[in-house]
Amino acid sequence: xxxxxxxxxxxxxxxxxxxxxQLRPLFDGWEDEATxxxxxxxxxxxxxxxxxxxxxxxxxxxRSLRQSGFFTQMILGACHRDVVLWxxxxxxxxxxxxxxxxxxxxxxxxxxxxxxxxxxRDEVRDLNRDHLVFYDGALPKDFIAQCRAxxxxxxxxxxxxxxxxxxxxxxxxxxxxxxxxxxAVLDQFCAPGHxxxxxxxxxxxxxxxxxxxVWYLKSLAHELEAGGYDEPLAVPPQIxxxxxxxxxxxxxxxxxxxxxxxxxxxxxVYLVADDWDADxxxxxxxLVWWNIGDGDPDVAGEKATKHTxxxxxxxxxxxxxRTIMHEVLPTHRKRFAVTLWYYLKPGSPEAIQSAxxxxxxxxxxxxxx
Length: 369
Known about the structure:
Elements: H1 6-47, H2 50-64, H3 70-92, H4 121-130, E1 132-135, H5 141-156, H6 164-169, E2 175-179, H7 184-190, H8 209-226, E3 233-234, E4 239-244, E5 249-254, E6 263-270, E7 287-291, E8 306-309, E9 316-320, E10 324-331, E11 335-344, H9 349-361
Antiparallel strand pairs: 1-9, 2-4, 3-11, 4-11, 5-10, 6-9, 6-11, 7-8, 7-10
């Protein structure tokens, strides 16, 4: 039996043929529901309305009841991985070159203003060596406050939704939405009547602050490339806006990328308040991370050293998506952040080799995604 995704093959091998046949209808039903949920995010964004929100919440509650055992968790995880791969494959078809976000092409030196943090060769060298770098105050506080206000407006309008599969797996408790610099919701809820750059360049100062932030993150890809980052990169069309609601929302330890996942670098800008106190007894929301490299991924062991990063307003954090295991500790105050993942460049020698390496590691009789 051929399975379209390696995660399904792993479940099949674990359960055996007979049990797989018994569970396959349930598995397929969950996977179909998850696919519809992902597609429904776009419909929810377009249409909104109380009925759509209630349906979303009902689905979340129904799925959360299904996390009753180890194999249930395994199957849910496989479903989730398949849907993520599907979404990433769609994004891969629309990736752009880092050179498309070279500010100099548009006669600009900055995406926001002259105080913003840019990445030079020294910063890229540090990232190649240390796998994670961060910079406090990478963007001005007044700009971050405007981004935070716009993010809160989107959240109050019901545009951010909980990731259903993650809720079922119990590994995270945040809300999120995808954005690009031309998203219609920015015009509707953040900066009515704002103008986009007609040449595809950085949005003007009159645009939504979030639109300008999206372009800032995309422009860093060019600097990673120019600075000698150790893999060729591509820029997906959208970033993720996430909200940890302050009611103990968290994200358990995880890796952003593995196996066929094209994400290679994670870039985060924190939109927290100026007076944010990351003490776990106060606002919380610390980023805890381990550089596992090629070593033992058991974060409880001695081979990985635990580090803690306190988020601050306008802080930029950049790390390798395949070597940094990380978690977000419970938050006790609403906390926004934006994340952009830079992909491995499609068709590059590194991407071709990665696909070959993964193909040869699959169980006999299975196919890669």
